[in-house]
Amino acid sequence: MIEINPREVASEGLYRIFEEQSFNNVVLKSILKQNGAMAKNDKAFVTEIVNGTLRNIYYIDYVINQFSNTKTDKIKPWLLAVMRSAVYQIIFMDKVPVSASCNEAVKLAKKRGYGKLSGFVNGVLRSISRNVDNIELPKYGTPEYLNIKYSHPLWLIKMWLHEYDYDFVENLCKSNNEPPDVTVVVNTLKTDRDSLKNDLEKEDIVVSLGKYHQNVLHLKKTSDISNLDAFKKGLFHIQDESSVTAVKVLDPKKGEKILDICSAPGGKSMLSAELMENLGEISSRDIYYHKIELIEDSSKRLGLSIINAEEKDALQFYPEDVEKFDRVLVDAPCSGFGIIKKKPDIKFRRTGNDIDELIKIQRGILENASKYVKKGGVLVYSTCTICKKENIKNVQWFLENFNFELEDIDNLLPNGVNSQTKGCVSFYPNVNGTDGFFIARFRRKEN
């Protein structure tokens, strides 16, 4: 029988994420599939190390640099992956013996041909393990403290501090480092909330009710959701409660023509179809063909026949769609700072320059989408980011340049959620327990 070392698998995952610039969710899925013979608890161990290391990457590198004469930017990539994962285990995983973390790291260094450097690895890790309680951080109250303590890029911390007070930003960063639940939406065309809850609990999944929406469930202790019978039968799809709110603000009605212009992975289209009782037309678009296939597969699994998945570029104008739709949803490509909890690699992949480029894309999509809305129709703009330039500043730009007005949404929001300004609402992980999210609802003027 082949023995699989979960620490080696985790280190390999980290190596790929940083060296190949691969996305953590893609890498995790790949390495867990490649090592499918691993026990369930070993797969969970690998996932915890990879995601936990990414969540705390600035802190981990800061600690390594305090105790190593060779700094992280000079350490061999494979050794750095091994050391990062070991430091995460030493500092953040209380149930993992320190000696095991150090010894296994040395073995992995030797296994990949770095025997001569195994003493260096051992020395640094042992020094860290002896001084875990003596790590000196930057002064509290400074951006640098939040940067290191909660492993968020300094430029992002400074941007948030320009918009929010220090305590809020600290709590936001702290919340971003907590493991997320899996949130699912009940397919009300096939089942009901309580029946699905019972089905999932029989699979030893910990299930709790949604905080804001009736047909939402939160799941813990899940492994591969796609293997569940309830998933295969199309009894639910994955979607955060903030994203569910965007669909509720869109308020699709039976028999209408709806455009979801940046649809993938398709959760908002799926929920819209369910709310419409599978009556009407939904054009669900994305620029990438493989994502269109994903939408088609999900629609089929959920038994939704009104969704027409189309490979179309939202930045390209289509004259045939002018004034064709009752409601248009623009869930725009964005910096994604609202979903750091789910995709921690966003923290070190994005830069301030990315935001400026994204704003151009967002405004180009909004300009096209505005032309597809019937007179008197509704346009909803949403993002999964916490960045005023991408959110409220785009709303102001849109109102100044197009024949639309913001529409009051308080009657469409769930209990406990209020609009900050007319027609706009923001969600925050530290406040709402959801993704960070922004939603604005416009109505096209009749003349």
UniProtKB/TrEMBL annotation:
Residues 172-445 form the SAM-dependent MTase RsmB/NOP-type domain. Its EC number is 2.1.1.176. One of its GO terms (biological process) is regulation of DNA-templated transcription. S-adenosyl-L-methionine binds at C262, S263, A264, P265, G266, G267, K268, D286, D313, D331. Specifically methylates the cytosine at position 967 (m5C967) of 16S rRNA. It catalyses: cytidine(967) in 16S rRNA + S-adenosyl-L-methionine = 5-methylcytidine(967) in 16S rRNA + S-adenosyl-L-homocysteine + H(+). The keyword Lyase does not apply. CDD domains: AdoMet_MTases. Keywords: Cytoplasm, Methyltransferase, RNA-binding, rRNA processing, S-adenosyl-L-methionine, Transferase. Belongs to the class I-like SAM-binding methyltransferase superfamily. RsmB/NOP family. Coiled coil: none annotated. GO terms for cellular component: cytoplasm. Pfam families: Methyltr_RsmB-F (PF01189), NusB (PF01029), RsmF-B_ferredox (PF22458). The keyword Transferase applies. Its main location: cytoplasm. The active site is at C384. One of its GO terms (molecular function) is RNA binding. This is 16S rRNA (cytosine(967)-C(5))-methyltransferase. It is found in: Cytoplasm.
